[in-house]
């Protein structure tokens, strides 16, 4: 009986092997699958434009005092970024202009007009305020209480400061003013400043990013 | 009575004889083998037309998953005739092909065109065939830039990029990253066979099959039949059946005409979209 069972088993195995060999000649051996290391792919920094410009040296000398400041406003929905200004800045630098970057808290008006002019302007404004105050004082004297001159000055100063603050837009500014001699080191500084300004632009601020 | 007894004796002798048990073993073996060793199949999956729609990508992904899970399917031939499509959809298919490749051989057979994302998909396979005049390459990507932020004043957002996702400049930086990713995939999957530098690959040029073979973008010149034989050979099959997956393809309207570019532009919104796509010339 065992012999017969063995014969049946052998028969089964023979058929299985036969079918197996009919269809298969081997097995698939997968090669190791390599996947791109995605974490190593980084957003590339925007390339800075390499730009060489040849100009005559006395360009800035021909520009009048009034035209010596250029304000480039990155705020107020102006749709460009600091790095996009590289070519423009290098052109200006090669013509002997100096480029400065200012944040919102910098005294833009002071930088644009210069300290002396600002002082003169302030004095003129104070005079105007005093002239206006004289008739006011007479009118107010008729009323219940008379505010002191010091109080009026403080209030005027506060109003003035508020006006100045309101005038200052909330993001990065670039002021361009002329300077005849401009060294290579300064050029490097300007390039690095543009990077800093760009990083400032891309970092979130409480006000958001004005464009 | 005598004939009945003689029949009984004959049957008893037959059922106790060795040939009967041999036949019994063979019959049982045949029955068991049908269940234990089903006929192996090579599946043909056609990737045709632009892969822009996620539904179309999902159809392909479902077939790939079925091929991976099925015990009858021992290998897959990818029949590619595609100009590529959306970057995300293309990458999904590529990554799923890599997963399938860990279990079963995948052989790509390029028909008329495997450009951009079409070639990206082919890179996931073990072996790439193309025909002598197949169009292969266009390695690179493009982006439909986000619209400038000119939102209606009536619309409020919580952040400066809430509506657009990013600036146009950032989108271009991302495009460069996506280009680099594509190049890395080509270099990784083609390895030493690749005869082109990164700069040459980045040109986004279309090559014909014979050129692609010379530069190592494909492995051999051959048709679908060759691909089937290769898949069978890699899977270790002598005899096999062929199983064709049918997927409804998208209409091929992606030529360089203005009308078709307008089609693409019509799909762009405020936020950027990235493509591994080649616009065919008419």
Q: How would you describe this protein?
A:
The complex is a heterodimer of chains A (211) and B (282). Chain A is mainly alpha-helical and 211 residues long. Chain A has a domain at 65-117 and 167-211. Chain A is 49% helix and 8% strand. Chain A has 6 helices and 3 strands. Chain A has helices spanning 2-23, 86-94, 108-113, 115-142, 149-167, 184-202, and strands at 70-73, 97-102, 173-178. With 282 residues, chain B is an alpha/beta fold. Chain B has one domain: 2-enoyl-CoA Hydratase, Chain A, domain 1 (Alpha-Beta Complex), CATH 3.90.226.10. Helix content of chain B is 45%, strand content 20%. Chain B has helices at residues 2-15, 18-36, 54-69, 87-101, 117-122, 168-190, 198-202, 209-214, 224-235, 258-267, and strands spanning 41-48, 73-82, 84-86, 106-115, 127-130, 135-137, 142-144, 206-208, 220-221, 241-245, 273-277. In chain B, strand 4, helix 5 and strand 5 (127-130) form a beta-alpha-beta unit. In chain B, helix 3 runs parallel beside helix 4. Chain B is elongated, with a radius of gyration of 27 Å. Chain B starts with a helix and ends in a 5-residue tail after the last strand. Residues 253-259 of chain B have low confidence and may be disordered. Chains A and B meet through helix 1 of A and helix 2, helix 4 and helix 6 of B.
